[in-house]
Amino acid sequence: MNNKFKILVVDDEEKIVEVVKAYLEKDGFEVITAMDGETALNLFSKETIHLIVLDLMLPKLSGEEVCHKIRATSSVPIIMLTAKADEDERIEGISIGADDYLTKPFSVRELVVRVRALLRRTYREITPMADILTFNNGDLEVDIKKMIVKKRGEAIGLTSNEFKVLTVFLANPSQVFSREQLVEKAFGIDYEGFDRTVDTYIKTIRQKIEDTPKEPKYIITIYGMGYKFIPSFIEVK
């Protein structure tokens, strides 16, 4: 994979940081590191980061807090490292902004594979469409190239996976997609997700772009079939 990608590795265990950094650099990536949440946010504000490997248990600021702050403005992909392995905890990780997760102890080789796969999904060519789409007289604005979504002019932080799902809807307005179709179009057939993951993405996207998430006007549930996007008053810049 092209070594243009810069990865931020955040963990308070020095040995983990050293090993992960060595493996990623061997694979051709540029790697910078942090051992606490405050340093991670400071580096993120100064550097162009393409992916973050983020431990949950950090000094100064927790991984959850770091993730929330980054998600306020950025869709950069995040792989979360957690000691919690059950499905509800994984779903919670996705809900707060993670795109993927690994349970400690983990295989560093598997982490590298997941990094490569997430970068490939995130930065692959997006379905051609206008650079900027606006809906409902500017209520919602989506910058495709910069991966920025704004609600009434204010940037809202979608995860890279949430942005991929939203992009599928934008490229196919009014088309109904099943969960399986959304996964295949957004992430490819090799994506290792599960059914509830798609529902979680839809829920979090609605929380960010809808005025009333329980009464959505953009992403509508078609019971027994899936979801579709209603492009009301669409304008193209």
From TrEMBL:
InterPro entries: CheY-like_superfamily, OmpR/PhoB-type_DNA-bd, Sig_transdc_resp-reg_C-effctor, Sig_transdc_resp-reg_receiver, WalR-like, WH-like_DNA-bd_sf. PROSITE patterns: OMPR_PHOB (PS51755), RESPONSE_REGULATORY (PS50110). Residues 130-231 form the OmpR/PhoB-type domain. Pfam families: Response_reg (PF00072), Trans_reg_C (PF00486). The keyword Secreted does not apply. Keywords: DNA-binding, Phosphoprotein, Transcription, Transcription regulation. Residues 130-231 bind DNA. The modification 4-aspartylphosphate is found at D55. Residues 6-119 form the Response regulatory domain. May play the central regulatory role in sporulation. It may be an element of the effector pathway responsible for the activation of sporulation genes in response to nutritional stress. Spo0A may act in concert with spo0H (a sigma factor) to control the expression of some genes that are critical to the sporulation process. This is Stage 0 sporulation protein A homolog. The lineage of its organism: Bacteria, Bacillati, Bacillota, Clostridia, Eubacteriales.
